Fold:
Amino acid sequence: DEHWASSPKAGSVASLPWVESSIQGLLKEDKIPPSKLILGIPFYSRVWTEGVKDGKTTVSSRAVFMEMPQRIMREQKIEAKFDEESGQNYLEFTEEGKPAKIWIEDETSVRARIALVKKYDLAGVASWRRGFEVPEAWKWLNEELK
Structure:
C-alpha cells in the first residue's frame, strides 16, 4: 500500500500516479515482461481520522469495504469530489466529532486501473480482497477487460 494502516500520513491506498510509477519501475528497472505482470486492485479504502496530540496532528486509519463510502455519503448527505492528485474520488466528513477522509475505491478508480493494464499491456488484474467489493465491481471488470 502507498498509505498503509499505520502510515504517518493520510492518503490513498494506491493513488493512480503511484500505481503507474510502480508499473513503470517494474517494467523498466526490474525488466519484468508485461505478459508476466498482474496489477493488484484494492477492493477497500481506508477511513483516515485526524486528531491532535501534544500540539501535533495525528492520524489513524481503518480499512473499510467499497460500500462504506457510499453509505457515508447517503447518511451524511454529502458528495465526493474528484481529487486530481490521486486520480480518485475523495470524501471529507465528520466521524465521532473528528475530521475524517477517504480516498475512495469505486467505479472511477477500478476503471482507471484497468486503463493502466491496457496502456502497459499487462497480463491482467487481481484484487484484494474478495468480499470487500460491491457487486457492480465485477461488471466494471468484465466490461473493461473484454
Q: What stands out?
A: Residues 16-28 form the longest helix (13 residues).
